[in-house]
Amino acid sequence: MPKTAKDSNQGTAMTIRPHFTLTRRGFLAGTAAGASLIALHPYSAFAQANQAHLRIMETTDVHVHVFPYDYYADKPVDTVGLARTAAIIEGIRAEATNAMLVDNGDFLQGNPMGDYVAYERGMQDGDMHPVIQAMNTLNFDASTLGNHEFNYGLDFLMKSIAGANFPIVSANVVKKAGATPRTDETLLKPYVILDRAVTDGAGETHPIRVGLIGFVPPQIMNWDRKHLEGNVQTRDIVDTATAWVPQMLEEGCDIIVALSHSGIGAAKHTDGMENASTPLARVDGIDAIMTGHSHLVFPSPTFDGFAEVDVATGTISGKPAVMGGFWGSHMGLVDLLLERDGNRWNVVSTTSEARPISKRNEDRSITPLVESVAFVEDSVHTEHEATLTYIREPVGKTSAPLYSYFALVADDPSVQIVSIAQKWYIAEMMKGTAHEGLPILSAAAPFKAGGRGGPDYYTDVPVGSVAIKNVADLYLYPNTIRAVKVTGAQVKDWLERSAGMFNRIEPGKADQVLLNPDFPSYNFDVIDGVTYEIDVSQPSKYGPKGEPLNPDASRIVNLMLDGKPVDPAAEFVIATNNYRASGGGDFPGAKGDTIIFEGPDTNRDIIVRYIVEQGTINPAADDNWRFKALPGTSVLFDTGPRAAEHIAEVKDMTIEPAGDGPDGFARFRIAL
């Protein structure tokens, strides 16, 4: 019988499969995908006696994406799904002598299947969460918690992970803090030590002790305050590792792997860092680091130039590291060549890579690189079907129609609901912070507004029931929520940038073309919380890409807050998304240096939560912006033909049909 070491709250030594046994070995053989995957790795080929090649595979930020399916759009996709990642996982197992599979957190929440289980089906004692079932099916060796595991509360979390056939560890979430991390009462075991056996280059087997320790951003105490305050506390990631890793070494770990649900950020350690993987990698005793949280890929050019990060070697602070994308888009892989020195193993050399499940072609089309694995899909088939029913049923109601036909020329209900939901979320997140009490504004742009998408490419949800899949109409992209702090002057300049959507209009002239065709609709931000007018008779201050054109120009007039002129020196919080806040579109006040809050939730999820909580929403446009009156002047714009059904709902503006536009669009005339 294999030997089992101690099991305690501080850590656990477990015996789970005494060898790196391969399940369903070689099931890809004979397929095109299998032929490319099953190629003997150089480490295995050249490992000598007393040397062993250990491959550590990582998934991260799966967010309940087991099926290759977009539940918001209600259609299959080739770019997501643990069932597709499984093809790469099983291929690695088939080619490797020794392999482990770990998950790096954020598995319980993030798509409608997660919401279905949490809000509809529920988790009773003994129930199996579908993502845990899928992970059990794939024989994961271990996992850690991500920040989203806490979104549904601690009771739901604990019931969900109870069904895992693998250990789940988290070192820096504590129920009762001690004088040091090593005297904490942790929510879960901080680490696990797996007693295994590896085969060396001569075919001999040897014991190895692999330690895995997990970390989550301390910011969960802000992001899920309502669930966590008074129940748990968090510690700094690096300080926690510095305390626990020596104990793991004392207990005889040969290899220590950090499961860091934390991104790759600054090299300098500061207390409470959210993205702490770089200073974490410097902790003595850690041999490899699995990263995640930021939904990026490492190694990749994204991290060129980051301090202590070497993209070419796939290392952080000299340690092998990987980040396997998100939603199953990649499988991270760290290869370790180990050499036995007496009774201990040392790392001789390493490589890292992130293997994708699909590729984007030059024409932006997608080519799948693997097929979905049937036995993984089968493990959650019942919940998948139930989720399809869930997304097609109402989760709330709207008392006003949601359409975007006039989103570029008038305040619009499809943009309004996004702004309302963002503002609702950020108002809660600002409580208890240094920014509480500042006016909260919300910036949102129309995504479906014709253009190259054609005359049917518009949001159109009628009064009545709203289903989850309708949210894809309201918000196309998987952006995440952000908040920035700006001045009144920056608010005005932000709007000046948006006002580049319009051509300069000559007063007193009829039927001038209003919209600049080179200006994308997703850069036409409307800011709710203030009122303003746009004087299109003035030149634009900025061009379509945000380039300065006329530094002294001013199209934004009568910019008011609560009926009073906005003070250029006043401070405001603007709710927006990660794309805009980080510099997307090149907006004044949103260049990445004004961010005060980076939320973990997608804007889509926030809209769904808002609708569920409100029951019935009233997204009717509040007409907080309009064009400055230009008597005797009219303009033309093209939109979808169904816009005619909603003309009467556009307030304080005279709009009339003006014939047919090109390519199936309808043309309308506005009297300014």
Description:
This protein has 672 residues and is an alpha/beta fold. Helix content is 21%, strand content 28%. The chain is built from 17 helices and 40 strands. The strands form ten sheets. Strands 1, 10, 11, 13, 14, 15, 16, 17 and 18 form a nine-stranded mixed beta sheet that branches. A six-stranded mixed beta sheet has the order 7-6-5-2-19-20. Helix 4 (112-121) crosses helix 12 (381-392) and helix 13 (413-429) crosses helix 17 (603-614). The longest helix has 17 residues, at 413-429.
Question: Which helices and strands occur, and which strands form pairs?
Answer:
Elements: E1 12-14, H1 32-37, H2 42-46, E2 51-59, E3 69-70, E4 75-76, H3 82-95, E5 98-103, H4 112-121, H5 130-137, E6 142-144, H6 154-161, E7 168-169, E8 173-176, E9 185-186, E10 191-199, E11 205-215, H7 220-223, H8 225-228, E12 233-234, H9 237-250, E13 255-260, H10 277-281, E14 288-291, E15 297-298, E16 309-310, E17 315-316, E18 319-324, E19 330-341, E20 344-356, E21 358-360, E22 366-368, H11 374-379, H12 381-392, E23 394-398, E24 402-403, H13 413-429, E25 440-444, E26 460-461, E27 464-467, H14 471-474, E28 480-487, H15 488-498, E29 512-513, E30 526-528, E31 531-534, E32 556-561, E33 564-565, E34 571-577, H16 578-581, E35 595-602, H17 603-614, E36 616-617, E37 625-627, E38 634-639, E39 654-660, E40 666-671
Parallel strand pairs: 1-10, 2-5, 5-6, 6-7, 11-13, 13-14, 14-18, 23-36, 25-34, 29-38, 31-37
Antiparallel strand pairs: 2-19, 3-4, 8-9, 8-12, 10-11, 15-18, 16-17, 17-18, 19-20, 21-22, 23-27, 24-26, 25-30, 28-34, 28-35, 31-32, 32-33, 38-40, 39-40
